[in-house]
Specification:
- Helix content is 44%, strand content 12%.
- With 510 residues, the chain is α+β, with helices and mostly antiparallel strands.
- The strands form four sheets. The chain has a five-stranded antiparallel beta sheet with strand order 7-11-10-9-8. It has a four-stranded mixed beta sheet with strand order 5-3-4-6.
- A hairpin with a 2-residue loop joins β9 (248-257) and β10.
């Protein structure tokens, strides 16, 4: 059962009401129910008494519900819901709105000057501000700035409810330039000031030094074991750890914001019974907590919509319904490891990455023995000498690729995250020495979060698809993959899993 009519791309109210009655987490974030008798909007998983059908209005996005005058539920907390994505590779308007929402969802782009934000986004997408607003409103029912304001306010609401951060710090972390503006926007939308909401949610203080804990929702099914195994096989000591028995994993992380670099650690534990992830973030990363949340959601693919993906891929890969495309907390790290993994096994690539971290990584003091170093920054590797990299066992072609990647990222000309322009970034990557189509597609799949990436030249993929030994297997694989659009990244992960391979020898699952 779906809640969207894909022929019209509109909400099916009757289907949504049936999903609401079931409280099924598979529909979490796909729609929100606004109750006219209370003025509140909820997630479909909300456990309050189900409202009468005639009192319900259904919205695809939280921003639509808030624009219609409804306030978020304090019990089910809409800010915890996974984001909704309607991917298209053919419709120009849909692609434009996808690119716009991906950019607006990234907290590193949040500015207090709303007018500048709209102009900046339109310029990045190569369209006029007026055209962007027209397409955005036609597709989503709200303007880009209305969508952005809801994202910022819901982020602030989560920080108020789950942390003991001062209101001033929450205002800045949520993209507001001043407490006055934050208070005014909060009061206007929610009819509560921030301190009132904090009292309403009865926040419990967290132990100093033990990190800040927040919860993040996802849609089932989610193959937690497969995700943990994926990261365990690629784990660099000191930078990450995986505890499969406890269903948790940890990472070190550096986030540069303005002139300040935030360095810390984070721990994530799956709570499958609630379809949630418990995230604990070190105090050093509290000021950029929205960015940490955004990055982890991408790294663990928490916003995937299994229903839409399985509708296309289940017939070809019936055993892969819960598989996700693992991402990365840092796109630069992923790209470097992709280069290191070219033409060698996952274990050999991990060894090279470990040597790179031991030589160039920055020590980090943490309360967790498993987490003690940061992956080398782009600025550091941009200055790396060939001899130093060669002593680690990295061949010259890959040395040049790593340094070129580092210089591109350090100079801010190359963006390796989910808000990047995918076609332009693919072209820029392939223009670098030592980076071909396979590596670029792999980076697009994991770092750029492009659901339709497809490394057509992958040898292991050819084997699973029965194309080994034939003429031009890459061209044949590309043609066969068209049936899997726009979810070819997920098809690749399912094909590798079906073939029982940790990763292709040709490429960089490292």
């Amino acid at each position: 059962m779906g809640c969207m009519n894909r022929s019209t791309d509109r909400i099916d109210d009757d289907a949504c009401y049936r999903a609401l009655c079931s409280h099924d987490a598979r529909f979490d974030g796909q729609f929100f129910t606004a109750v006219t008798s209370t003025g509140i909007y909820c997630r479909p998983v909300c456990r309050v008494r189900t409202p009468r059908r005639e009192n319900c209005r259904f919205f695809e996005h939280a921003a639509q519900a808030e624009q219609a005058g409804f306030r978020p539920c304090l019990r089910c907390r809409p800010e915890l819901a996974p984001l909704e994505r309607h991917w298209s590779t053919e419709d120009a308007a849909a692609i434009l709105s996808q690119q716009a929402t991906a950019w607006l969802d990234d907290p590193q782009h949040w500015l207090d000057d709303s007018a500048a934000m709209g102009e900046r986004l339109a310029a990045r997408l190569g369209v006029s501000d007026r055209h962007l607003r027209r397409v955005f409103e036609a597709r989503l029912g709200v303007s880009p700035l209305q969508y952005l304001l809801t994202r910022k306010l819901l982020t602030a609401k989560q920080l108020l409810a789950d942390t003991d951060l001062p209101v001033t710090q929450i205002a800045l972390a949520s993209g507001f330039g001043s407490v006055r503006r934050f208070n005014a926007a909060f009061l206007d939308h929610y009819r509560l000031n921030p301190t009132q909401l904090r009292r309403e949610t009865r926040h419990k203080a967290q132990d100093s030094g033990q990190g800040t804990v927040v919860r993040l929702g996802y849609r089932p099914p989610y193959d937690v074991a497969a995700t943990l195994a994926f990261f365990r096989q690629r784990m660099i000591e000191g930078v990450a750890f995986v505890d499969e028995a406890q269903q948790r994993l940890g990472f070190t992380l550096r986030i540069d914001a303005g002139d300040h670099s935030h360095r810390g650690w984070l721990l994530a534990r799956f709570d499958e019974a609630r379809s949630q992830l418990e995230l604990r973030v070190s105090d050093a990363l509290r000021e950029v907590l929205p960015q940490v949340i955004h990055r982890l959601r991408a790294a663990l693919d928490l916003d995937a919509d299994p229903g839409a993906i399985n509708a296309v891929l289940h017939g070809a890969f019936p055993a892969g319904d819960g598989l996700r495309v693992p991402g990365a907390l840092d796109g630069f790290e992923l790209a470097v490891r992709a280069v290191l993994g070219q033409q060698i096994t996952v274990a050999a690539a991990r060894t090279l990455a470990q040597r790179l971290v031991n030589r160039f990584g920055e020590p980090l003091d943490t309360p967790h023995a498993e987490l003690s170093r940061l992956f080398p920054s782009a600025a550091v590797l941009a200055q790396a000498e060939g001899d130093a990299l060669g002593l680690l066992g990295i061949v010259k072609q890959r040395q040049a690729a790593i340094v070129a990647l580092a210089r591109g990222v350090a100079g801010q000309g190359l963006v390796l995250n989910g808000s990047a322009d995918v076609p332009a970034t693919l072209a820029a990557l392939k223009a670098l020495p030592g980076i071909g189509d396979w590596t670029a597609q792999y980076i697009a799949m994991r770092a750029l979060r492009w659901p339709d990436a497809f490394p057509a030249g992958d040898v292991a993929l050819h084997k699973v698809m029965g194309l080994q030994g034939g003429k031009q297997p890459a061209r044949a694989a590309e043609a066969a993959s068209l049936a899997w659009k726009p979810w070819r990244s997920y098809a690749v992960v399912r094909a590798w899993s079906a073939g029982h391979v940790a990763g292709p020898n040709h490429g960089a699952l490292s």
